[in-house]
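Continuing the batch. This is chain 6 of the set; chains 1 through 5 are on the previous pages. Same settings as before, nothing changed between runs. Recording input and output for traceability.
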Amino acid sequence: MSFYFIYPLAYLVGLLPYKVQFLLSDVFRFMLYKVFKYRLGVVRMNLRNSFPEKGPEELHQIEVNYYKHLADVFLETISLTSVTRAHMLERMQFINTDQIEQATEGRSWIAAMAHYGSWEYTSSYSLHTSHHKVLGVYRPLADKGFDRFYSLIRSRFGSVPVPMKGIARKAIRAKEPLKEVAIALIADQNPPFAPKGPWIDFLNHKTLFFLGMEKLALKFHMPVAFVHIDKVKRGYYRAWFELIYDGQEAVENGEITRRYAQRLEAMIRRRPELWVWSHRRWKYEPPKEYCDSEDKSVRP
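Output for chain 6:
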């Protein structure tokens, strides 16, 4: 039932002029930030721990900008129910598609993404590729209505949503990767606890990352491209790809994941308000052998 309530409402909101959508975003930001104080303690703790070199005023400004951006992302996601192909091509631009298409011609590859910018907009990459079917890997939601809603908006422009476990099963059973697919993987979430890591230095924390992307790339010799994103203005983004693994290079275990983490941190430091700070990213403490005795990060 939730789908039949959510989808028509979202569709109507998506038809509104952009200026009206931005006004709704401002109202939503006020409710999130000032009224409900949505995960405000988590946001502040994450910012303090990640940027110990920044003063209170600078951290506060990042906080304010973050909630403004988070509200924008919410409205942008809703707009995907009814935004036209032409408007999507304007609002989400991919700069170097020709280069990545040439580098991966005749091969499958992985787009290494993050919860940064407007990550739902990146599903529109299927409008830019003529050689690859875009598979968007996601975690199914417990609420079936919301899960159906997200699957629908992610597939509007030709991308194929694939549950995370579905990709894993296909990879394990397959002797060869699917032909000419681009697998979009958001790899910055908090993975299951793994004491032996690798624990990677990331935003002033020893941090665990999912290794699924790396395992998939190594098993099938798939190139991995980090997806850089920038917000041009409200509702408009641009993205470009940086190849961080060519599918052939001999690398140590964890190296592809470290390269991903390094690019992600650099991108976040450039515009920190565009990352999801309300996520409980650092739930786990690393084993003692990984800890720096001079670690002075703020703990709750």
